[in-house]
Amino acid sequence: MEIITVKEEMCKWAKQAQESGKSVGFVPTMGFLHQGHLSLVHAAKQANDHVVMSIFVNPLQFGRGEDYITYPRDEQRDKKLAEEAGVDILFMPNVDEMYQKKQSIKLMVTEKVDKLCGIKRPGHFDGVVTVLSKFFHLIMPNRAYFGIKDAQQYAIVSA
Ligand code: PAF
């Protein structure tokens, strides 16, 4: 398993995969991996030549007073689990790498946010789709894999 932390390198790897006609399955996560994530890796491995997993705790999807700082993190354990599951590329950028000093562009979700989590966490799904859009541009996956436990997120990202 290769670990990439720099966007430019991720992009370079993705271009090479694309040029060589290899399919890429992408599993975006915020780390602290569990069986659910690993089952997504399993599904991605079955349908693609390569599997890329991202681990990035995305500050943009946490509101004020939410648990960004205390969100559980265990990089060493995550690396071990990802490698054992057969991830080819683990993309682990830090916040400065993912976002410019001043966030100047943000996507906005306009449907399906008027219920459930969307009401209690204003802006949360805007942060989710913004980071996913950045990942999709960098990684250019053929397929992306999301857990269905977070049903509202699933409905929004698959729309
Ligand atoms: O479901 C998550 O862990 C996150 O919302 C995601 C999709 C990785 C985006 O940060």
Binned, the helix content reads 40-55%
CATH topology: Rossmann fold
Q: N-to-C terminal Cα separation, in Å?
A: 32 Å
CATH C-level class? Alpha Beta
Range of strand content: 5-15%
Radius of gyration: 15 Å
Sequence of strands across the biggest β-sheet: 1-4-3-2-5
So, CATH architecture?
Answer: 3-Layer(aba) Sandwich
What is the general shape? globular
Total count of helical runs of at least 4 residues: 7
Major sheet summary line: 5 strands, parallel
Ligands present: pantoate
Give the total of domains: 1
H/E element sequence: EHEHEHEHHHEH
SSE class: alpha/beta
CATH homology-level superfamily: HUPs
Please mark out the parts with pLDDT under 50 across 5 or more consecutive residues, or reply none: none
